[in-house]
Amino acid sequence: MRLAKSYWENALLQRKRFIMRKQTYTMIAAVLVLGCLTVSANAQCGGIPLIAKIPFQFSTRDATLPAGEYVVKCLDPIQHQLLFQSTDGKAAAIVPMILVIGKSQGGMRLVFHRYGRRYFFIQAWADGSNGLELPTTRAESAAARELAGIELKRETIVRIARR
Predict the structure, then answer these.
(1) Which of these, 127, 113, 121, lies nearest to 50 by C-alpha position?
(2) pLDDT by residue (tens digit) across 95-135?
């Protein structure tokens, strides 16, 4: 009888070890996947933060910011949100962006559209081939319509940024 009992105890012990090993491997795999997702999400902002001196007042999606030096940070790499913050801390705006893949022409830069005396932020590029783009806003569309009546064209302004 003792032999039969030890056989079942041994089988139960082996089963428990198998379950513990399986749970351990599952946890290790989950941690690795989470780590990979975090690295991937941080790569989506493409090397941002940037610092740029912007010599004109400009509009983002929801805000108009004065001329000055700005730090542009990736606030949320998954939802591609940028934070524009003046170095003096007096102006800031959060800008939701869209990821643009493989269209970089090199270098860190901020891109603006100019309509007459009005400037609209449209893109942020860092090192690498990916950038972030702001979809055309209602204010920019309205400025384009106004200029269409007097036959002025949109200009693209590029400001070089640094880290």
Answers:
(1) 127
(2) 999 988 776 666 788 999 999 889 999 998 876 667 889 99
